[in-house]
Structure formats: C-alpha cells, structure tokens
Amino acid sequence: MSFRQLWESLLPVGRDQQTGGYQRFSWTAADLSCREWFMAAATARGLRADTDRNGNLWAWWEPATAARIPARAGAVVAGSHLDSVPDGGAFDGPLGVVSAFAAIDLLRERGFAPARPVAVAAFTEEEGARFGVPCLGSRLLTGVISADAARGLRDASGVSLAAAMSAAGAQPDLLGPDDGLRDRVAAFVELHIEQGRQLADLDAVIGVGAGIWPHGRWRFDFTGRADHAGTTVLADRRDPMLPFAATALAARAAALRHGGRATVGKVIVVPGAVNAIPAAVRGWLDARAPDQEALRSVVDDVTAAANQAAADHGVTAAAARESFSPPVEFDPGLRARLSGALASGGIKAPVLRAGAGHDAGILAAKVPTAMLFVRNPSGVSHAPQEHADLADCETGVSALAAVLAELAAR
Ligand code: GLV
Ligand code: MN
Ligand code: MN
Predict the structure, then answer these.
(1) Which whole-number Å values give the CA distances from 378 to 3, 49, 170, in the listed order?
(2) Which of 26, 261, 358 is the best mutation target for the ligand 1 pocket, counting ligand atoms within 8 Å of the beta carbon and taking the most?
(3) Which of 93, 141, 346, 383 is 20 to 30 Å from 179 by CA-CA measure?
(4) How crowded is residue 342: how many other Cβ atoms within 10 Å of its Cβ?
(5) Is the minimum distance from the CB of 354 to ligand 1 under 6 angstroms?
(6) What does the pLDDT look like over 146-164, one tens digit per residue?
(7) Which among 213, 382, 386 is the best mutation to test ligand 1's pocket, defined by most ligand atoms within 8 Å of the CB?
(8) For residue 145, pLDDT beyond 90
(9) Is the pLDDT of residue 65 over 80?
C-alpha cells in the first residue's frame, strides 16, 4: 500500500467536520479508532502488534532466523503518536506513525532483510490534551512519572486516567515502568512534521533533530469574590480576571526579555457568567526557552507578576508546575549515522533544534534517540491548517527507510 493510501485511511478518524481539525484525545472513541487503525495496519503487514502496559502501541517486524544477528539484538524503532491537541492538524504525530509503516513497506519492496527487529510505535497522550501531562505514555514507560501519579490525573470533566482507561477496556493497574521493553530498544527514530519554517527557509525537505528546548506547563489559580457586574462599584471588587490578564501580558514580556516562548492557551473562568464578576480564574502557562536558566527566569518573572497583580486586586494567587521536560541533546553517534544515511541517499538534511516537545525527547534519557523533520511550508502547527506536501511526505518515507536500513542492517 502506498503512503498516500495509508495516510488517507487514517484521515477521517477524529476529524471535526466544522473546523477540519482533529479531536483525538486519549482513551476516547476517536483514540480507540486510531488504535484499531494501527492494529489493522500492523496485521495487514503481518507484523506482530501489541499494546504495552502503558497503552503504547507496537508493531514488530522480526528478522528471519537466518538473517538474525546474535540473539537479543536491540530493535530499531520508528514512530510517534496518534493523539492530537484540541482542533489539531493531521500531521503532528500521525505522520511519524504512517511513515514508519510506509518505510517498512518500501524496505520490503526492495527486498531488505533486517538483521535485528524493526518496530513501529505509537505513544499514548503525547499532547497531554486530555490529562495535562505531555508524553504521558513515554514518561510512564521510562519511569519519569509514577504510575500512581498518572492514574490520579484528571481530565476537564474530573474523569481520572484510571477511570478513562478502565472504561476503554484497558488496565490502569498495569501502568508503570517497563524496563524489559525499554531494553529491547536499541534506537528510536521519530519522524515529525516540522513545526516552524526553518526547512522552508533553507529550501530543504528533510531535517535532522539536534535537540529540544527545555519546557513545561504551570497552572495559575486566582481566587477572588463573585459579585454583580452592574451593581458592584469598582473599588469594592476582588476580580480574579484582572491579575490573570496581567499575568498573560507578563508572560509575553518575560519571554521577550529572556529569549524564550510563553503562551497562555487555556483558561477556565468560574462560574463563567457574562454579568457576574468571576469567583475564580484558572489559566495555564506553557513556557519554553533555549536553556534552563532562561526558562527559570521566564517562569520566575511571570510568577512574580501574578503575585503582585493578585495583591493589587485583593485576590489570592497560587502557581503549580504540572509538567517539565529538561533540555535534550539527541545521541551524537545516532545523529551522525542518520546524516550519513541521508547523504548517501542524496537527501540534503540540515540540522534543526526543536521548540516543540516529543516522545523522542523523553526516551532520549534512556535509549539512543534521533529525529527527522519533514518540511512544513507555512510552519503552522497545532491548528487545522498544519500541512506538508505529499511529495515531501514521500521523501520523508524514503529518508526514514534509508535510516532504518542503515540501523537494522547489522
Ligand atoms: C507538543 O507538541 C508540544 O511541544 O507541546
Ligand atoms: Mn504536538
Ligand atoms: Mn507531535
């Protein structure tokens, strides 16, 4: 099956008819359909598919016994994730999974016989869109988050991860680090749509990842006093919206000051009446920077601004870190092998540093990992307009096949 056919078979799953964006949140009906799609893609290729104890999906291409190098050789794994942000694009995540299956198809067409296992992986809740912690499946696999902490995470309706998994027929009691599986992975390569315009500006289709900026999520809670919008004189108000607004503006200023990025993309106003001063406002800060010191400065500045603005308005403020990802440098030896394989295949591949988080960044702490990026002409991502041209996606498949052939040949 061609890349295009496989890609199109996944496109309708979880697509919002109004916006054209995707609502693929973990353990929902759309996610279960994505999981069925993965299993069907594996089965159609004769790959052994399974779901690990953390809900991550794996499809294994085992070498023929004759070709196999000495027993217990680690696997070469390619993949990404199938979940989306609210109203996300089609490519962020799925491109890496579809390309991995398509690369296996290409290698087989060419008669390539791997000497070590090759696997396709799809990690659960990479975006943290439902339960708040990004890369949850790879964090659980590598023990970066405890099973108890994960089971207790709650979505916006108060449903815990444990309850959501049980309702979907999965077993939350099995969650936890999986050293045996992790030890089977000799290398992980995540192909991903670029979430910026570096490749377009460099007139290149494929990029190799150098590393990932440190980043994290912080929750800010402002608690004031609900009252009537028409009758409460301004001097008597304790309006939590005002320090929240000051905090969002402070985030922008702090990011500018320290060379980072800061975004307030989600806010909940309680009770949310047009004609009432809110009782409480909860907002989330996503902050990223080139290094940890700059990131700390951004968050410290925003927190100080939130506390000051809250005091100015007679409101209480509380800040809590919900997740953190330290800076990542991808494995230099693996990167060099990727670059060499691409150069031999005539594929120009400049080196990029990512401002976005990826499962490859989490796995990098435990196994050699690397990333390939595919050109995104507009750079738009986490939005329905996210796009990569079909020809570029096909070049991505060729690039991934070249890399897998290099890594699995011996
Ligand atoms: C993942 O896409 C992230 O960086 O938020
Ligand atoms: Mn994403
Ligand atoms: Mn992604």
Answers:
(1) 22, 35, 38
(2) 358
(3) 93
(4) 22
(5) no
(6) 999 999 999 999 999 999 9
(7) 382
(8) yes
(9) no
Pocket-testing residue among 84, 87, 95, 127, ligand 1, by greatest number of atoms within 8 A of Cβ: 127
State the distance from the centre of ligand 3 to the C-alpha of 99, rounded, in angstroms.
Answer: 14
For ligand 1, atom 1, which residue shows the shortest CA distance?
Answer: 357
CA dist 357 and 128 (Å) reads 11
Ligand 1 pocket check for 134: Cβ under 6 Å = yes
> Which one-letter amino acid corresponds to residue 188?
F
CA dist 238 and 177 (Å) reads: 46
So what's the pLDDT on residue 1? 79
The reported pTM is: 0.96
Give the separation between CA 207 and CA 251, rounded to whole angstroms. Answer: 30
Q: Tell me, in angstroms, the distance from the centre of ligand 3 to residue 317's CA.
A: 32
Among the bound ligands, name the one nearest to the CA of residue 371: 3
Place of tokens 């890349």: 3
Q: Is 216 in the pocket of ligand 1 (CB under 6 A)?
A: no
Q: What is the mean pLDDT of residues 383-390?
A: 98
Mean pLDDT over 350-368 rounds to: 96
> Cα 366 to chain center, whole Å?
18
Would you say the CB of residue 347 lies under 6 angstroms from ligand 1?
Answer: no
Q: Residues 167-225: pLDDT tens digits?
A: 999 999 999 999 999 999 999 999 999 999 999 999 999 999 999 999 999 999 999 99
92 alpha carbon to ligand 1 midpoint, in Å? 9
